[in-house]
Amino acid sequence: MNMFDTHCHLQDDRISARIGDIVAAANRAGVARMLCCGSSAEDWGGVERVGAAYADKGVIRAYGVHPFYVKSVDPGENNWTDGLSERLAADPSAAVGEIGLDHAVSPRDDERQAEVFARQLKIAEQYKRPVSMHCRKAFGAMLSILRGNGGLKFGGAVHSYSGSPELIDELVELGCCISFSGSILIPTSKRAIASLKKVPRDRLLIETDSPDLLPRGAAGPFNEPANLLLILNKVAEVLGEPPQKIAELTDENGCRLYRLAS
């Protein structure tokens, strides 16, 4: 059984010292592929190193500026966009992520978040790459930007989905896959469960968001890709399908989105 962890941060300082053990444990658990997402220009070098060292273990790279770190870049300058473009040009398999909007973080600058997000969408389109997107309490703004962009021409995922079931149809129409994390294991996560049931099967993804979002029942202190099995089993339970089938489905969806051989 092969699984695809479509969003994690293996370069994170909290787990990077144990990266060899973490990747090996993931492979033993059946996690054959892991999308390692950057958060800011400061950690893109770490993403590159992890991807280079563990490419044969299924690690794929993604580079982007997370909304938490938009203050580290000037939307009107090109130094960071040039750096992102250089990374993508050097690695034809790399995606763009983690990018997006967060209206729950405080303090925040909505205008700068929107500008940085929109510029990265354009770069992804220029290089014909899929995107991995963060969205928290900002779905109206994200939908507006995606509509203005003409949708995601090369696909993308809303990671660790936290929106309402009613938004799923439009997100799918705009080119999004929908990814679920360990939050669906929280007993009170009724909205996430309802959203999961609404997602078309060919747009469904699973992820850990390691080292964050430690799933209920997993040993800590930090989350790891090996815990994807817990999420898989919950998704299978909710959808009334065998875990093997959901593993195959989500792996195929992830490989299609990120242009990989399944």
Would you write up a description of this structure?
The chain has 262 residues and is of the alpha/beta class. It contains 9 helices and 8 strands. The longest helix is centred in the middle third of the chain and has 17 residues. Helix 8 crosses helix 9. It has a single domain, classed as TIM Barrel (Alpha-Beta Barrel). Helix 3 links the parallel strand 3 and strand 4. The model has no long low-confidence stretch (mean pLDDT 96). 39% of the residues lie in helices and 16% in strands. The protein has an 8-stranded parallel β-sheet with strand order 1-2-3-4-5-6-7-8.
Text of the CATH class = Alpha Beta
What is the ordering of alpha helices and beta strands? EHEHEHEHEHEHEHEHH
User: How many DSSP H or I helices?
Assistant: 9
In angstroms, what separates the terminal alpha carbons? Answer: 12 Å
Helix proportion range: 25-40%
For the biggest sheet, the summary is: 8 strands, parallel
Topology:
Elements: E1 3-8, H1 19-29, E2 31-37, H2 44-53, E3 59-63, H3 79-90, E4 95-102, H4 110-126, E5 131-136, H5 139-148, E6 156-158, H6 168-173, E7 176-180, H7 190-198, E8 204-206, H8 228-239, H9 243-257
Parallel strand pairs: 1-2, 2-3, 3-4, 4-5, 5-6, 6-7, 7-8
Helix pairs in contact: 8-9
